[in-house]
Amino acid sequence: MTYQQIHKYSIDTPEQFWRGQASKLAWYKQPTTILRNNSQQPSGYEWFADGELNMSYLALDYHVEQGRGEQVALYYDSPVTGNKYAYSYNQLLEHVARFAGVLQANGVTKGDRVVIYMPMIPEAAIAMLAVARLGAIHSVVFGGFAAQELAVRIDDAEPKLVISASHGIEPHRLIPYKPLLDQAISKAKHKPNATIIYQRINVPEEKQVSCELHKGFDIDWQTAMKSAERVMPVAVASTDPLYILYTSGTTGKPKGVVRDTGGYATALSYSMKAIYNLEAGDVMFTASDVGWVVGHSYIVYGPLLAGCSTVMYEGKPVFTPDAGAFWRICEEYKAKAIFAAPTAFRAIRKEDGNADLLQNYDISHLETIFMAGERLDPATFEWVCNKTGKPVIDHWWQTESGWPICASPTGIEKMPVKAGSSSLPVPGYNVMVLDDSGDPIAANEQGNIAIQLPLPPGCLTTIWGDAERFQKSYLEQFPGYYASGDGGYIDSDDYVFIMGRTDDVINVAGHRLSTGEMEEVVASHPAVAECCVVGASDSLKGQQPIGLVIMKNGVDISPDELEKELVALVREEIGALACFKVAITVSRLPKTRSGKILRNLVRKIADGKEYVVPSTIDDPESIIEIANALAKTKLVS
Ligand code: COA
Ligand code: AMP
């Protein structure tokens, strides 16, 4: 069948389509009910309601049973430490089954939450799979987040245990995870029963950090593993949550995206062949982090469900040691697919514009280069295509969807790609462009990107502890549709062009951040009367936040000092990954007469784009001041 036929089949008869996909998984109990309405569910429907399975079983034990025990499941490659390991399916299963034993011995049972705050080391994946083995729910927090952000997530997920490591290793500094965790726990209202800490002693001496464990509360990973019992997988219902993953919304409070088990397993398995054209034995290199959805889906679960070998890379695209790092990985592990954010390739291009380093490596096993996380700009697309000679596929998805919404489905039919487009809706997704009143609009016209309900399996089922927010955020704006928060258009060949967010979410180096959250932090400074934060275009990171601030009258601080303190405050409260490096004091902000800050206008001025001064503006002079202030500021990556 062609892509078009398969897509149509999936939309016209979703139950038949997904029954076929689900039947390929080794469920403990095959579902007989595929899609059913259920008013108890926040979305109003559910997938595979009577199915039972275990994700850790499907990702590990199943492959051992199929004779793949000696095949590599996970390659760990860490240029920041010099360490490289390969875990076979047998070995990974052994670690996971025993670590599940450690968790069980410390009281973790089905439905309990476990927060994981770890660097990109195999133990992070082992922890995720071990939590899943017990039918518990993990919530991985990206290591670049500061203690306050971790505390917010601990309070929301209320974990029984937190799993962490002594420290993380960035190219130019060490990240003290354990002290950050201690701070987070003391800030949080909810207190976990215990922590499990992996001490990174197996790294070069200058990269070691000794971390003190508190007796009776902190458990040493390595010691606990010595006496651990292997644990068998626990069967869970398809609709039971596998994980909560926090993502930025428009307010200061992150959204805890809830992922079910059966729908996710089915969708990921399907995507591995249909989108990435990968099968058992193939190697996938996803250059992301387990703290992001891309890491959950295509470093850990997707490749392991498919019986592939996954590459877990603790390094950067550049400077660890150079811009040839990705090509080296592709050669060394014979990767058939690489998946990274466009910003990573922009960084490579900046350092090695002629791609001279690529000549040192044999990337003949590489079939396709996938990119997502932000818009793939045509210049980067052309550069990667030309230098590698490989097909480059931009595909669009979100933490909420858990797997791609639009792509060129290379395992179904290699559809031609168009620069600037993330190609075609993936089977299962009925993507539409709606105007602000919810009516579909014509081809090539920009509007709100929405997906007709029901969403396919694998997408979020609710927001943890807040079904009302789930409905308000995604389902109320356009009844019958999921509102994606992205704007764009569909051309006359059905290709989807995602042009950017329609809300206050920004994308910095492929990391999703909320300007609303940054505004809350900036506004908390005692010298700040009012502020706004917008995402301005950046040639390397896609976007960079900039803050415009009005000082309170009579405060005893210079504008320079305040600007420095605000930069430090956002780094302290949200984390280095926010890349908040520019705060500018001004005497007024452009507002409408009703008092709404014209953020869109500020963004256009910052980007040097043409703008029209709205007739509703309260104080047109404010624009001149903002334009002058922004012109004086050099935005540097
Ligand atoms: N733990 C702790 N700190 C982290 C971190 C982590 N896992 N990841 C990033 N940081 C820190 C960095 O050290 C940096 O700190 P600094 O301000 O002290 O330099 C800060 O957060 C900003 O990091 P980043 O935006 O990544 O900038 P960079 O200059 O270190 O690297 C790129 C630039 C383009 C190479 C890098 O952003 C990159 O590889 N991006 C790809 C992102 C990606 O894969 N996203 C996945 C979504 S699909
Ligand atoms: P995240 O939830 O962190 O994966 O971020 C999702 C957001 O990143 C989307 O809503 C988009 O704004 C953006 N995004 C992801 N992939 C793409 C893409 N291929 N093209 C354009 N924007 C993208």
Structure in words:
The protein is α/β, with parallel strands linked by helices. It folds into two domains: 3-315 and 395-488, ANL, N-terminal domain (Rossmann fold), CATH 3.40.50.12780; 509-631, ANL, C-terminal domain (GMP Synthetase, Chain A, domain 3, 2-Layer Sandwich). 31% of the residues lie in helices and 23% in strands. It contains 18 helices and 32 strands. The strands form ten sheets. Strands 5-4-17-16-18-19-20 form a seven-stranded mixed β-sheet, sandwiched between helices. Strands 7-6-8-11-12 form a five-stranded parallel β-sheet, sandwiched between helices. The chain has a four-stranded antiparallel β-sheet with strand order 23-24-26-27. β9 and β10 (173-175) form a beta hairpin. α9 (262-274) packs across α10 (293-305). The protein is globular and about 70 Å long. 54% of the residues are buried. The model has no long low-confidence stretch (mean pLDDT 95).
